[in-house]
Amino acid sequence: MAVQAHPQTPHATTIDRREGPYGEVVLRERGEHFEIIANGCFLMDTSDGRSERLLVDAALDALLAGAGRPSPDLLIGGLGVGFSLARAAAQPRWGRITVVEREQAVIDWHREGPLARISGEALADPRCEIIHTDLVDYVRENRIGNAGTYQETYDALCLDIDNGPDWTVTDDNANLYSPQGLAGCMRRLRPGGILAVWSAGPSPEFEDALRNAGFNLVGTEEIQVARGVPDVVHLAVRPA
Predict the structure, then answer these.
(1) pLDDT for 82-129, tens place per residue?
(2) Which long-range contacts (CB under 8 A, 24 or more apart) does 69-75 make?
(3) Which of 44, 165, 196, 224 could form a disulfide with 206 if both were Cys (CB 3.0 to 4.6 A apart)?
C-alpha cells in the first residue's frame, strides 16, 4: 500500500537498485527499517508484518480445521521482506516450504544482504527452498518425470506478489487473478487445500472470481492499518 511521507519520517537511503526483466526494483533503508520499491511503486517494508504473518496463520488454521494433515506442504508466492517465510518456518506443523520469487535481486537481499536478519534462520531450515521463477508461470507449468507430465502440488498456497488483485505492480501479475491463473492455482492445490491471497484492500470482485473458479468457503480476514482501508487476506478452499 502506498505510504505518504510524514514530517517525522526518516529520510530513505537507497541500498541497491536493479533493472531486471520486469522493471526496476529498489531496496531502501529508512531509519531502522527496509522497504522494497518495484517500478516506482511501494510494495512493502519491515515496519510491521502483521498481515504477512496472518497470510500464513490463516492458511494453517483453515487446514487444521479440516481433515487431518500431519505435515502440510506450503507454497509461498513472493519472498518480499521475508515475514511470511519466517512465520512459516517458525511453525513446526508445516512440512515442505517452497518460496517462488521472480526477482533475483530480492533473493540476493535475503541470502547475502540486509534482509537476512529476517529470513536467515528460515533459509537455513531444511524444509525451505526458493525457486527463482515467475509465480504466474509456475502455477501453470508442467514438469516431466518418469511417469509423464506432472505438477508439484501443495496443501496451501499463500500468495503475495504485489498489492492485490485490484492493484498489480506489473500488468503480467493480473494473469494470476484471471480465470486461467486461478485454474492454475486450483491444480497446484491438493483436494481440500487452502488458497490464501494477500491484498492491500478488500475486493468483492475477486471473491466472485474465486467462486466462479470453483473454490469453496470463500471469505476474507482483515488487518487494520494506521491509515486507509485494512489489509486483507482472501481465503478459499479447493473442493475435496
Answers:
(1) 999 999 999 999 999 999 999 999 999 999 999 999 999 999 999 999
(2) 69/155, 71/95, 72/154, 72/155, 72/156, 73/97, 73/98, 73/153, 73/154, 73/155, 73/156, 74/98, 74/154, 74/155, 74/156, 74/157, 74/158, 75/99, 75/100, 75/154, 75/156, 75/157, 75/158, 75/188
(3) 165
What are 204's strand-pairing partners?
none
Q: Which helix (H) or strand (E) holds 59?
A: helix 50-65
CA–CA separation, 91 vs 13, rounded Å?
A: 34
Interhelix angle for 116-123 vs 104-111, to 10°? 80
Question: Under a CB-based contact definition with an 8 Å cutoff, are residues 85 and 49 in contact?
Answer: no
**Closest C-alpha among 71, 77, 68 to residue 94:** 71
The per-residue pLDDT for 7 is 44
Name residues whose C-beta falls within 8 Å of residue 153's C-beta, 6 or more positions apart in sequence. 73, 187, 188, 189, 190, 193
Give Cα 109 distance to the centre of its chain: 17
CA distance 26 to 29: 10
User: Cell 540476493, residue?
Assistant: 108
Q: How many CA atoms lie within 13 A of 23 on its CB side?
A: 12
Rounded to two decimals, what is the model's pTM?
0.90
Rounded distance, CA 149 to CA 33, Å?
Answer: 44
pLDDT digits (tens, 9 = 90+) for 179-215: 999 999 999 999 999 999 999 889 999 999 999 999 9
What gap in Å lies between CA 160 and CA 77, rounded to an integer?
Answer: 6
